[in-house]
Structures are given as structure tokens and as C-alpha cells.
Amino acid sequence: MSESTYIVTGMTCGHCVSSVTEEIGEINGVQDVQVDLSTGNVTVTSDRELTHEEIRSAVTEAGYQLAS
Amino acid sequence: MSESTYIVTGMTCGHCVSSVTEEIGEINGVQDVQVDLSTGNVTVTSDRELTHEEIRSAVTEAGYQLAS
């Protein structure tokens, strides 16, 4: 089990949170996604190591930006 | 044909605009809904006079507030 936290910018409301949660949740191996809208912190739990690029791609697909 | 502009508060992103547009668009007689996210102005075109209460109800249903 692996847990990593990322910072996503541009989310402004619950719909944004839903979009990001949904896109990241579709990555193979992801078991849980927790988003804190006020900080932009997105914590992803998965059963394998995810690459930064996989996360970045999902966040971009949802219409937001990975901060780093 | 009737056109009225309302101010809706609480919209922060395109998803919010979609929600408000969709709910107001479901009111009987509504033909067009234009939302300006930056000002909160919502312009509704309809083939009959709409009551303030009809608009308020749709905006509330979408999860936002009618300013006046």
C-alpha cells in the first residue's frame, strides 16, 4: 500500500473536488482519494507506486494543475 | 418574449455555471440562459413572464443564492 500527497491548484468548489477525485480514482491501482479544497492537498492511496506523470495527467484531464 | 437579469452569488467555476444554467433551463418556458461568472449576472430569456420565486427555487436547487 502506498500513500502520497500532492498539491492541486485551481479547485474552487465541490464540483472541482469531484472532478479531481473522479479522474485520479480512475488510475489503475488507486484505492482512495481525499481532497482538502481549502489547501489543495490531494492524498492518494494505491496498491502500487504511482508515477508523478500519472497523477499529473489525471489532474490535467480534470482541468486543474499539479503544483509541483 | 421576456428577458430578465438576476444576480446569483456563490458560483466559483464553470461547473457552478453549468449547474445554474441547467436548473434554470428546466423551468417551463425558458429558452435561453446566459451566465457571467465574473459578475454573477444570469440573463434568462423566456416565452412568458417568470416569477422571482421560480428563479429563486431553481438557483437554490442548484446550490446557490439569488442576491435579491
Automatic annotation (TrEMBL), chains A, B:
Keyword tags: Copper, Metal-binding
Residue ranges of every copy of the HMA domain listed in the record: 2-67
InterPro entries: Cu-bd, Heavy-metal-associated_CS, HMA_Cu_ion-bd, HMA_dom, HMA_dom_sf
Pfam families: HMA
Protein name, as recorded: Heavy-metal-associated domain-containing protein
The species this protein was found in: Kibdelosporangium lantanae
